[in-house]
Amino acid sequence: MAKRLSFAIAALSWLDSAIGIFHTIPRLDPSQFQPQDFITRDVCIIGGGSAGTYAAIRLRQMNQSVILVEKEDHLGGHVNTYNDPIEKTAIDYGVLFYEDLPLVRDYFAHFGIALEKVSVQNSNVTQIRVDLRTGTTVSPAESNSSLALAAYSTQLLKYPFLNTGFNLPTPVPLDLLLPFGEFVKKYSLEGAVDIIASFNQGVGDILQQLTLYMMKYFSLDVLQGSFNGFLQPVSHNNSELYGAARNELGGDVLLSSTVISTHRDEEGQWVYALAETPSGNTLIRAKRLIIAVQPRLDMLQGIDLDETERGLLGKFNNTCYYTALARIPGIPQGVQYLNRANDTLYQLPPMPAVYVINRTRSPNLFSILYGSEDHMTEEEVKGNMTQSVLQLRDTGVPVEAPEFVGYSDHSPFMLTVPADEIGNGFYQRLNDLQGYRNTYYISASFNTHDSGQIWSFIDNLLTERWGTL
Prior knowledge:
Oligomer: single chain
Signal peptide: 1-20
Largest sheet: 7 strands, mixed
Mean pLDDT: 90
Pfam families: NAD_binding_8
Strand content: 15-25%
Protein name: Amine oxidase, flavin-containing superfamily
Radius of gyration: 23 Å
Helix content: 25-40%
Keywords: Signal
GO molecular function: oxidoreductase activity
Number of strands: 20
Distance between the termini: 38 Å
């Protein structure tokens, strides 16, 4: 047994070095390994965020065996929860709400987690609009938002193919390739911009982003939720879902682990992944590989991408998004500060900027949401957050510098490509990657940054296409 393990370790070292050479990856001969040296599963999933966790649970329901590899010490991705030791309560400062969809209710019900309907139009919250560059107050937008949102929904209804995935027709409708600012002017949607901006956080300059991406993010389901309410666990703790999933998956999860190399045999039935885990390197053998992380090249280091994959995925650009939780002495309770500007179109704050300083369930804690087009360090983001908070002094609020108790960098956030790439069939070619080299992609970039919509996309992939690919 010791001799076989020594041989396996030597072979793993060879595999690790060989796969690091792009385009010269030798074929891995499974006969070099003893069966007990593998973790063998039907599916290997890289990434334990919203997409990867849901896929693991659904695949097990479909009698597929899985192994889920997650770099963090917990599941959940963009879900960030802080357990306040003072108030003895959980505070979410990442994902907050979910659309009221049957699929969402079924997923939570699977774990016995009770949900409740909540309104984002909370009458107990006083919203103050302020320019956080100068500390000056900003008057409400002068427009009829109801009529504009009705007109926007009319536009959404023209494109039902946007509901799940990027299944775009040929040719792609030209309106979807307009910068959103031009689209707004074309259809007199000015009154909807302020509300859309409040939801489309983390996407950079919304007026310059393509209408396609803005419609995917502020979808019909989100629009309906803004009026009718969203779902939230009764516990107000979104990490409860991922704790329950972790318990159910048990040994099928490798936490604090990273896939450092893969080998996908195009002529064979197996995909191999070498995972670095707290207990050492583990070789995984699976029939299919699911990539549930953002498909940027720098996020896929170690994956044996070929020229087709690398050429396509290398076209992505991205925005950056950050969330923080802080104690901010001096801010009155029940107040939300929305960052707006007095000297910009539609009063939108120039990037990089704080989006909102929001009250939480704890009277002493506030969440701060921040966006940028280029990546920033934690020190830079916190420094800019602090400066923005202190500008509130000029509004008469005796605020002190924030004491950060939680921080998360959600970058790379929204992945985009230019209009000419989309018009030339980028998303058709991207969709063709599903099943290519026994590999599937399920991150937000294949649908949108919305848990319910991601789960719907995965359900569609697994139930309608999985058996035929």
